[in-house]
Amino acid sequence: MYRDDHRTPCKVIKKARLRHKFEEKKLRDTPGDFLTPAPRSEPLHLLRTFFPSKMAPFNSLTGQLKPSGSAKRKRDTKYKNDDADKENDATRPAKATKTQTETANSVTARKTSSVGLSKEAKKLYTDSLKALDKRVDKLDKKVKTMNGNSLATTTSDYATSAREHMAAVNKLVAMDTTLAFNLLLSMADASHTDLDATAKMCGTPCDDSIPTFKLLDDALLTLVEAREKPASLVAGLPEVPRRWTWEDADVGVFKTGWPNKQQRGQMYLQKLAWEKKRRQARRERREQTDDWVKVALSDLVEERDYLAAYGVEEYLPRCIAKLDAMVRMRGE
């Protein structure tokens, strides 16, 4: 009974041992070669170090025949390094000299300075226009509350207010003459007001607009002579809104043939809004039109004729004469 239980597994073990012995003898009798060295005399269970479980595969036979890095000759390494240095010298950009570096730095500094100066000039110009408009609005509010015979505010007050921005003009002259020129023209627009606002708005002995007109005339004349003549000439100027008239009023019918107090107040506000848009349109035309001579002459002549009709004289005469002569020289 006991032998019957062990007979089957014992036969399996016996056959496995015989198979193992046969394979071992076959392996030991196999002669070694270059790729498969001959086995040692130790048993197979002691040969784990000789047959590792994970061996790196051979890339090629020539790779096995190459000498190690330590066995390379020094002169081979030297020649290789020399060739690499020559190749790097050929591809490496030439080092800039001290003079070239200083020149490049100075050009970059000038460009950066020019860009920064342009931004500063533009900001000064924009801020000055905002301040100029703010002063005009402040005076307009005072005029609105005035009595018709009051002399509290006259057109000369607008002229005095406009000349307060001459400091900004002097700064702009050193940075951008074009912006300085346009700012002066905007100041000339703001140097007078609606002469119909009150009965004594102009033409009174206390009118002191002429000194401001002379100051603006001298400053503009200097810039006119300094600026380059426009490269392109325009046949006609872009249109801007004309001066406000009673026909533009939108206050209903005048029942008595004359506006009442409420209608006069509404008309005054409409006129202020109209003139503000008109001044802005004239500024944009100056900034966008290349023929600055013709634009400036058109604006100044229109304002001169308007003021002269109310007895206000000496509105930038020298500058107007200079611009007119420049236009005539072009044969227009």
From TrEMBL:
It comes from the Eukaryota. Residues 122-149 form a coiled coil. Residues 58-112 are annotated as: Disordered. Residues 78-92 have a biased composition (Basic and acidic residues). Keywords: Coiled coil. Residues 97-112 have a biased composition (Polar residues). This is Uncharacterized protein.
